[in-house]
Amino acid sequence: MAGIISYGVYVPLWRLDLGSLPGGGRGERAIANFDEDSLTMGVAAALNCMNDIDRSTIDGLFFATTTSPYKEKQVSVTAATALDLREDIITADFANSLRAGTTALKVAADAVKGGSAKKILVIASDMRLALPGSDFERVFGDGAAAFIIGNEDAAVEIKDSYAISDEMFDIWRTDEDKFPRSWEGRFILEEGYFRVLPKALAAYGKKSSLTPKDVSKVIFNGPDPRRHRDMAKMLGLEPSQVQDPLFGVVGDTGAAFSLMLLAAALEDSKPGDRMLLANYGSGADVLLLEAMKELDHKRGIKSYISSKKVLSDYLTYLRWHDLVEMSEGGRRRPAPPSPSASALWREVDKNIRLHGVKCKHCGAIQYPPQRVCFNCKTHDEFEDYRFADKKGKVFTYSVDGMTPTPNPPFVLTVVDFEEGGRIWLSMTDKNVQDVKVGMPLELTFRKLFTGGGIHNYYWECMPVRI
């Protein structure tokens, strides 16, 4: 029986104060920093999911999102490279629907059951932009969840599944749209959400003879807090059975929404608990899961919700997401140059995998990769060394108030790693007042800039968050 071996989540550090929006509001929602997108958040969730699991045992990576950085290029391949997985694995992108995450989870379970893979890493991540001033702006949030699906030592069994498809225009985006479009509210709710999700759950209940009383928790997405509550009443659920949808705290995270709520449910689950996961979007998916044992949740949803910085400046939020152009003190700088595709290909191990080298003769660790050891001067006697999952500390740093950045000032840091090695890295998600020599750091995969249609990804350092 296929099931969940491990899980991880990622909620960005920053929260937008809904009171800062036009027209005001109550609560917060998670927002990505200017150097984050669905790919970088997905990699962060996957790193939390993998923990001590041997990377070489993972046979596939499925990436689900409605906000891929590219319209034509597999982000699952980039994620697999950043996570330093094997080359001979299955990779696939699931897109174009809020059901993409649960569909990827089901396909992964089927692949494991069928024997074509032993372990598949499923990532769901989304960063949907809302038109400023729209209702979506109050409910959309950013975040990611990741699960390793396998058939050995599973902590949560995926016991059954069911799906229906439904053709209608409720919420959609064309290839040219930056923001989602929607039809008239009552129509899309009554003929979409309130018709399709109960229909799928009722059909699955008839197929499996399962009633709401047979499950400990029902996990489902919703367009907003009120409609989520209305759905719970329509389904006849007790309040204790309904998983908190995290509106006003994280928000609707698109393709990652239901899977993040599943991760939240797993934090409180006990062996024997049965959970029903339902997800609406161009139809509906239903999955029945049963907890067999407790999972490690040191970096679970609760930890990430409590670790936050609140942004009350609406203009800064707009600027971070390229929704408004703002002056840099009267200066207008040229756009960054387009990265060289051939150079990026040559340096993929150094930049995306963040591989340095370790001297086979004296053990000295160094970055970037060298041919001559700086310590013992041995020539071409190195093995690859991965820095991305290592902890470090500030050796020295500089604070630059002149370099233009959406979140000034720019902090350039020399990082010394616990096991050896040193790298120059920019620092993100920081309070400049707290930066000091000796400060503990961890690494995070981020987007430096975009030029010529190419997103330039690299690693940055950040204060240890959890």
Task: Describe the secondary-structure layout.
Layout: E1 3-10, E2 14-17, E3 28-31, H1 38-50, E4 60-64, H2 75-82, E5 90-94, H3 100-114, E6 119-126, H4 136-139, E7 143-150, E8 156-165, E9 171-172, E10 181-182, H5 185-208, E11 217-220, H6 225-234, H7 257-268, E12 274-280, E13 283-291, H8 301-306, E14 309-311, H9 314-320, H10 341-346, H11 348-351, E15 355-359, E16 365-366, E17 382-386, E18 392-400, E19 410-417, E20 422-426, E21 440-451, E22 454-463
Parallel strand pairs: 2-14, 4-5, 4-6, 11-12
Antiparallel strand pairs: 1-7, 1-8, 2-3, 6-7, 8-13, 9-10, 12-13, 15-16, 15-17, 18-19, 18-21, 19-20, 21-22
Helix pairs in contact: 1-2
Defining key terms:
466 residues; alpha+beta; OB fold (Dihydrolipoamide Acetyltransferase, E2P); 9-stranded mixed sheet; 5-stranded antiparallel sheet; 11 helices; 22 strands
Describe this structure in words.
This protein is an alpha+beta fold. It folds into 2 domains: 318 residues, Peroxisomal Thiolase, Chain A, domain 1 (3-Layer(aba) Sandwich), CATH 3.40.47.10; 89 residues, OB fold (Dihydrolipoamide Acetyltransferase, E2P), CATH 2.40.50. 23% of the residues lie in helices and 29% in strands. The strands form 5 sheets. The chain has a 9-stranded mixed sheet with strand order 5-4-6-7-1-8-13-12-11, sandwiched between helices. Strands 20-19-18-21-22 form a 5-stranded antiparallel sheet. It has a 3-stranded mixed sheet with strand order 3-2-14. Helix 1 packs across helix 2. The longest helix is centred in the middle third of the chain and has 24 residues. The radius of gyration is 23 Å and the shape is globular. The protein starts with a strand and ends with a strand. The model has no long low-confidence stretch (mean pLDDT 95).
